[in-house]
Design a protein that fits this description.
Structural class: alpha+beta
Number of strands: 14
Shape: elongated
Length: 366
């Protein structure tokens, strides 16, 4: 293993998510899987409680470059606020819609949506203002949410806003800028700017009212200045990453497997395959429970296909006893006996007599 993989693994062991033999022991992971397995839709969304957040971490490194789009929006708006005395009285709201629309247009399909949300009173004409853009079936739509949605409360579903609002920014970076206009006027300013580490990555959650999907958010703070020049929180700019097509691997993690998936392997070993079967991962199944096949360890059918059970069905079942490997199909014989060339060519028939030559080999063996 590389050191980075070892460090991640040790982190999971220390946190109690996995044991040293890679077996999942944290009941929280099974609660997470139960939430994911619960069907959520536009129709059921209003009944979802604020804790429809999954208590797992996501490896954000794949999307770090996209975080710069949110940082660009936050720093642009920070500069405007600081240059205009802490508010945006003359700032036209259409520019906010342009910022989030351009973000989604630039980064789709990796980025599902983005938002610019201001703290109360930043815009003169509105107590709250939030420009939200989302990619819907190839069309990027932008709407204003602040007129009907209070994103400033402390609900878990507003984590991307509340965590940054309550953060300490005494060590925020300052960039010196100098602008020379055509008429010769020069304006110099020290602007508070956000870096990647100033932002916040949420846990996965089901988005009710926006994308209506499982997703997670990276948010970057917007800054103003207090009278003494110190930083003051003025809002956030975000990107939203959809999890619909991100696979959940519930199969066991082998001792020689040093790979680390998007969810730091926390789902590995959570399958429900019977003991006489082996879990085979199904890539491309997406952010759903049951993305695997339970393959009978010694069984193939008379066509040479492995006997197995669909992971979706196994996950839904309350009685796993019906998922049993039929031992009468575990053995295969050559139609012409053990010395036949057909054995090496892979021609096998299921045995049906006591004197059959039985083999427990791969029927596709050459």
């Amino acid at each position: 293993m590389t050191m980075s993989v070892i460090n991640r693994f040790l982190y999971l062991v220390i946190c109690g998510i996995v044991t040293a033999d890679y077996h999942v022991k944290n009941d929280n992971i099974f609660r997470v899987l139960e939430k994911i397995g619960t069907t959520a839709s536009r129709e059921t969304c209003t009944s979802l409680s604020p804790d429809e957040e999954l208590d797992i971490a996501v490896d954000f490194t794949k999307w770090e470059e996209y975080a710069d789009l949110a940082i660009y929006n936050s720093n642009y708006l920070s500069a405007q606020i600081q240059k205009h005395g802490g508010s945006l009285e003359t700032f036209h709201e259409s520019l906010c819609h342009d910022l989030v629309t351009n973000l989604v247009v630039t980064a789709k399909p990796e980025i599902l949506s983005g938002v610019v949300e201001f703290a109360p009173g930043v815009l003169k004409n509105y107590e709250l203002f939030a420009a939200f853009a989302v990619n819907t079936n190839g069309t990027v739509e932008s709407v204003e949410l602040g007129s009907f949605y209070n994103y400033t409360n402390d609900s878990l579903v507003n984590e991307w806003y509340s965590v940054l609002r309550d953060q300490n920014y005494e060590n925020v970076a300052i960039d010196r800028t100098k602008t020379t206009f055509r008429n010769g006027t020069i304006i110099e300013a020290d602007i508070l700017v956000a870096r990647r580490d100033d932002g916040h990555v949420t846990k996965p959650y089901y988005d009710c009212g926006g994308g209506y999907v499982w997703m997670f958010t990276y948010s970057s703070p917007i800054f103003g200045r207090n009278r003494d020049g110190s930083p003051i929180f003025k809002g956030v700019a975000t990107i939203d990453i959809e999890l619909t097509d991100k696979d959940i691997n519930q199969c066991d993690l082998g001792y020689d497997d040093d790979s680390v998936d998007l969810f730091f392997n926390v789902f590995r070993g959570t399958h429900k395959c019977p003991i006489e079967t082996t879990c085979n991962f199904r890539p491309g199944f997406g952010f759903r429970v049951g993305g695997y096949i339970c393959i009978c360890n010694d069984g193939v059918d008379y066509n040479g296909n492995y006997i197995g059970f669909n992971g979706e069905e196994v996950e839904k079942a309350t009685d796993l006893s019906k998922f049993k490997c039929e031992t009468t199909h575990h053995g295969y014989r050559s139609a012409f006996g053990s010395d036949s060339n057909d054995r090496q060519s892979g021609t096998y028939l299921p045995f049906n007599s006591d004197d059959a030559d039985v083999y427990y080999k791969d029927p596709y063996m050459k």
